[in-house]
Amino acid sequence: MTPYGSFTFFFILAVLLAPTVILGLKGKRFHTYNMFVSIIALGIIFSSSINQAVALIVFTIWQVVLIKVYIAYRKKNNGNTIFYFAVILSILPLVLSKMLPYFSVVNFVGFLGISYLTFKGTQLIMETRDGLIKKDLPLSRLLYYILFFPTISSGPIDRYRRFDKDLEVGISGEQYQLLLYEGLNKIFLGFLYKFIIGYSINHFFITNLRFIAHSHFEHQLYYMYAYSLYLFFDFAGYSAFAIGVSYIMGIKSPENFNKPFLSRNIKDFWNRWHMSLSFWFRDYVYMRFVFWMTKKKWIKNRNLLSNLGYILLFLLMGIWHGLEVQYIIYGVYHALLMVAYNSFERFNKKHKWWPQNKVTHIIAIIITFHVICFGFYIFSGQLFHKGV
Amino acid sequence: MDFKNEVISLLAEICQDDIVKENPDIDLFDAGLLDSFGTVELLVQVEERFGILVPITEFDRDVWNTPNNIAIQLADMQ
């Protein structure tokens, strides 16, 4: 069953989470019960495909063993090669699942959510390397973190230390009441976004485009804007469900969207769109790359270094979405935008060519909006699949 | 010069703006004075000058947001 895909799913959730709500309102601890709920929910989500269920179990064992072994190793040693090796092993299942369809008919490695779960595993390896995770992690917590069902299919991508804090903290009945209210609010926002607005854009506009548009160009143009809005409402709606259910379970999963269509520039956009993903790439790819290069003094030119960092980040992000040509070009497009914006920002700092006021702010938002929509148009694959 | 002032003058160098000295409670990220790149430069300099190693993921923008707060965090880690 697809998470949040049908009202049946929400109905099952309501039944499963009723004891959580009662415990929460009474100010009692509920995480042990929630772990039990997570197992049941995973069973329901993956019951339709035994292949995927097996792949998920094997993947989880793989990650847990890798993390445990690396933590044990890191207590005594801190070799570079072992660290790189651990990172490679941690992303290996994802790489295999993306490559395999090109070589084999059956994909026995992939399952719903593998792209998102990989981030959690890799992140733990990196934070252990940084010395931020020193103690051995309790197995139940580690499993609960990796397999936390509300966010399993498409995030938001949480961080272990943040998640762990939520498990530690005691929640009083009054505090839980607020959390429950916020969670329900988010779930209803999700209904509005995904099942009303997103659904309507797709059902009434996109699928009828051939009757609405008068020319090929018009068709593509309408599609570009409609698809961009659809993508936002669908994904932000899903995220609101995932975050809302997390709140009800006493876990404050991070936000994924912050009014992305009001971004002033492309840099601002990446602080507002799919935030848990872009922050992951910022912290674990871009900043690490820049830090490493600065320390080794391999690249001294600051602009070149920053631009190379952006190119690396967005190419990886593109490939992560899939190996199809539209995702790679989407990555290249955003890499080029960031490089161009970087130069503009530097130029403007010196020459003060673009003043900061209300009018320029609005113009900046409008320009950024169209540039972003073109990016989603590339992402949609419409350019590369003629006649769809 | 005490530690707090040293941190603030390092920030002024990295942000290339003396406003951080005049207003040490300014939010560096909101004001566009510091970004990811600036943050890395800061962390490299902090390690070189003060010998304090701050892992990148320890730098939470909600906590390390103003010159004063950064100085407090670094003083804690000294």
UniProtKB/TrEMBL annotation, chain A:
<feature type="transmembrane region" description="Helical">
    <location>
        <begin position="80"/>
        <end position="96"/>
    </location>
</feature>
<protein>
    <recommendedName>
        <fullName>Teichoic acid D-alanyltransferase</fullName>
        <ecNumber>2.3.1.-</ecNumber>
    </recommendedName>
</protein>
<keyword id="KW-1003">Cell membrane</keyword>
<comment type="similarity">
    <text>Belongs to the membrane-bound acyltransferase family.</text>
</comment>
<dbReference type="InterPro" id="IPR024024">
    <property type="entry name" value="DltB"/>
</dbReference>
<feature type="transmembrane region" description="Helical">
    <location>
        <begin position="32"/>
        <end position="50"/>
    </location>
</feature>
<dbReference type="InterPro" id="IPR051085">
    <property type="entry name" value="MB_O-acyltransferase"/>
</dbReference>
<dbReference type="Pfam" id="PF03062">
    <property type="entry name" value="MBOAT"/>
</dbReference>
<feature type="transmembrane region" description="Helical">
    <location>
        <begin position="327"/>
        <end position="347"/>
    </location>
</feature>
<feature type="transmembrane region" description="Helical">
    <location>
        <begin position="359"/>
        <end position="379"/>
    </location>
</feature>
<keyword id="KW-0472">Membrane</keyword>
<feature type="transmembrane region" description="Helical">
    <location>
        <begin position="269"/>
        <end position="292"/>
    </location>
</feature>
<keyword id="KW-1133">Transmembrane helix</keyword>
<feature type="transmembrane region" description="Helical">
    <location>
        <begin position="304"/>
        <end position="321"/>
    </location>
</feature>
<comment type="pathway">
    <text>Cell wall biogenesis; lipoteichoic acid biosynthesis.</text>
</comment>
<feature type="transmembrane region" description="Helical">
    <location>
        <begin position="187"/>
        <end position="206"/>
    </location>
</feature>
<keyword id="KW-0808">Transferase</keyword>
<dbReference type="InterPro" id="IPR024194">
    <property type="entry name" value="Ac/AlaTfrase_AlgI/DltB"/>
</dbReference>
<keyword id="KW-0812">Transmembrane</keyword>
<feature type="transmembrane region" description="Helical">
    <location>
        <begin position="227"/>
        <end position="249"/>
    </location>
</feature>
<comment type="function">
    <text>O-acyltransferase that catalyzes D-alanylation of both teichoic acid and lipoteichoic acid (LTA). D-alanylation of LTA plays an important role in modulating the properties of the cell wall in Gram-positive bacteria, influencing the net charge of the cell wall. Catalyzes D-alanylation from DltC carrier protein.</text>
</comment>
<keyword id="KW-0012">Acyltransferase</keyword>
UniProtKB/TrEMBL annotation, chain B:
<keyword id="KW-0596">Phosphopantetheine</keyword>
<dbReference type="InterPro" id="IPR003230">
    <property type="entry name" value="DltC"/>
</dbReference>
<dbReference type="InterPro" id="IPR009081">
    <property type="entry name" value="PP-bd_ACP"/>
</dbReference>
<protein>
    <recommendedName>
        <fullName>D-alanyl carrier protein</fullName>
    </recommendedName>
</protein>
<comment type="function">
    <text>Carrier protein involved in the D-alanylation of lipoteichoic acid (LTA). The loading of thioester-linked D-alanine onto DltC is catalyzed by D-alanine--D-alanyl carrier protein ligase DltA. The DltC-carried D-alanyl group is further transferred to cell membrane phosphatidylglycerol (PG) by forming an ester bond, probably catalyzed by DltD. D-alanylation of LTA plays an important role in modulating the properties of the cell wall in Gram-positive bacteria, influencing the net charge of the cell wall.</text>
</comment>
<feature type="modified residue" description="O-(pantetheine 4'-phosphoryl)serine">
    <location>
        <position position="36"/>
    </location>
</feature>
<keyword id="KW-0961">Cell wall biogenesis/degradation</keyword>
<dbReference type="InterPro" id="IPR036736">
    <property type="entry name" value="ACP-like_sf"/>
</dbReference>
<comment type="pathway">
    <text>Cell wall biogenesis; lipoteichoic acid biosynthesis.</text>
</comment>
<feature type="domain" description="Carrier">
    <location>
        <begin position="1"/>
        <end position="78"/>
    </location>
</feature>
<dbReference type="Pfam" id="PF00550">
    <property type="entry name" value="PP-binding"/>
</dbReference>
<keyword id="KW-0963">Cytoplasm</keyword>
<comment type="similarity">
    <text>Belongs to the DltC family.</text>
</comment>
<keyword id="KW-0597">Phosphoprotein</keyword>
